[in-house]
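Appendix B, record 7
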Amino acid sequence: MKHSILLILFVLLVSCNSKTEKRSGQEHVDTYINEAGEIKGDNYVIANLEVIKQKWEQSVQQALNSGTTHLTNFKIKQVATEGEAGENGYILTAETEDGMVSVATILELKKGKFYFEENPGTPRSYRVVICIGNCEKGCDPVVSLVDGVKILFCSSCPSCEKIDSNIL
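Structure tokens (predicted):
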């Protein structure tokens, strides 16, 4: 009888340890939500472009308090960060047809797939930056490295305005 109880306790202990390992692996993955794309050969391919386009256009319309907004030229780009120690990163960008509005979000590359970085303040959402303006060199999203964290800003130009938005 004692051996049976010890065997049951051992089996429970082993199964609990296995579940803990799976949970800890999931916790790490959960900081990145929704696949944004993947690398196919030499190309960066956007996943679910129509869904992303619709959500981003709604976000821009709300931020600008405007009517219909059409975003084009969606791209995943590799960029060098500005600031501390310049490292490479990835962003997803889009712009309006007239080039007056640019939108971007930081992506994380894991095992050949790009993921949106979860906004810690609003679970299951990610942050986009909307840059609005007409600058000679462009009013574009820029990634800076501040205290080891990648942060999106808009290029420095007096007429370039930045609006932060969350996508759910």
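Remarks on this record: The first strand starts at residue 32 and ends at 40. Residues 37-167 form one domain.
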